[in-house]
Write a structure and sequence with these properties.
Length: 324
């Protein structure tokens, strides 16, 4: 028997998917709840711990996402972990713990921009509240099945990533997300596979190419003419070609491939875009983004593509900030 939940398939004879969503205040928990609700989950936010087991034990025709965080009146991280462990013993449930996170400076900036008080710093600096909450929430982060770090994410990025992790559609389709990044800004925490392309000739040192990006034809030509580029890309695709079907066979539905260079503007952008196109040609559903390119002021010049980011089934145009 299959129930339809907002256009997404859910096998009602299988264990009920239950996602317990928690995390740091300001990291995107509200966005996570709304995203999973859009995917077909029944969303229950700010649930008291004493009501978790009774809620899950009721009859449900849709999967559940339950938001529990430090705002909850009877919140205790270890008590929540004990309840999750007990629920996981039930054969009729498939329970996953989602932890939303972000760096302290990003959390502080979001609270400053929205002028909202931190729930653990009503009478003291925001950073004090963030530090205290980090200690309280750390056991949940350590035990989480999925940790989503939104430090460099817009709301759209967050929704795209969550959709890949928690979609309800049955089937072997593998969704792939390819992103470029700057090593100066750190490796994307959500990455499954990371490739370093800093060995390629750097267009940054050519004054004519420095203002451009890897999406511009002159930069693409420059990188493609590196004597090691062809062998590298062939070896990269030769590695991925047999690997991806194995991921599908093992039941993996979402894969993030990150390509990094020094500044995240030239080499990594070109390689990530080229790899995304190669994957699309082989029939994979591919999302593409360039994490640190948006930080640069690149002059447009004959771009290879009209957009630097391709979404997987989600609408664009959302605000790049959220308050929680």
């Amino acid at each position: 028997m299959t129930e339809q939940a907002q256009g997404h398939s859910f096998n009602a004879d299988a264990p009920l998917p239950v996602v317990v969503a928690t995390g740091m205040s300001g990291s995107g928990l509200s966005t996570a709840m709304k995203c999973l609700e859009d995917l077909g989950y029944e969303a229950v936010d700010n649930l008291r711990l004493s009501l978790l087991e009774p809620l899950v034990s009721q009859s449900h025709d849709r999967p559940l996402v339950i938001g529990i965080d430090s705002r909850t009146r009877d919140f205790n991280a270890h008590t929540l972990l004990d309840q999750i462990a007990a629920l996981r013993q039930r054969p009729d449930l498939r329970v996953r713990l989602l932890f939303m996170d972000a760096h302290a400076d990003a959390l502080q900036r979001r609270y400053t921009e929205t002028r909202r008080p931190h729930p653990m710093a009503l009478d003291r600096p925001v950073l004090d509240g963030i530090a205290h909450e980090r200690v309280v929430m750390q056991p949940l982060r350590d035990a989480a099945d999925e940790v989503v770090d939104t430090t460099y994410f817009s709301i759209h990025d967050t929704r795209r990533h969550l959709a890949g992790l928690f979609h309800l559609d049955e089937g072997p389709a593998l969704k792939i997300f390819v992103t470029s990044f700057s090593y100066r800004q750190g490796v994307p925490r959500e990455s499954d596979l990371v490739f370093d392309v800093r060995f390629l000739d750097n267009p940054h040192w050519d004054p004519r190419l420095r203002p451009l990006s890897g999406l511009d034809r002159p930069v693409a030509d420059y990188v493609a003419h590196d004597p090691d580029y062809v062998d590298f890309f062939q070896n990269l695709t030769r590695l991925l070609e047999p690997l991806l079907p194995r991921y599908v066979r093992e039941g993996k539905h979402y894969l993030t491939i990150a390509i990094g260079c020094t500044g995240g503007k030239h080499r990594s952008v070109f390689i990530a875009h080229t790899l995304a196109e190669w994957l699309k040609e082989r029939g994979y559903k591919v999302g593409e983004a360039h994490r640190d390119l948006v930080r640069k002021e690149a002059a447009p010049a004959a771009p290879l593509t009209q957009t630097a980011a391709t979404d997987i089934g989600l609408a664009a145009g959302e605000s790049p900030r959220e308050s929680r």
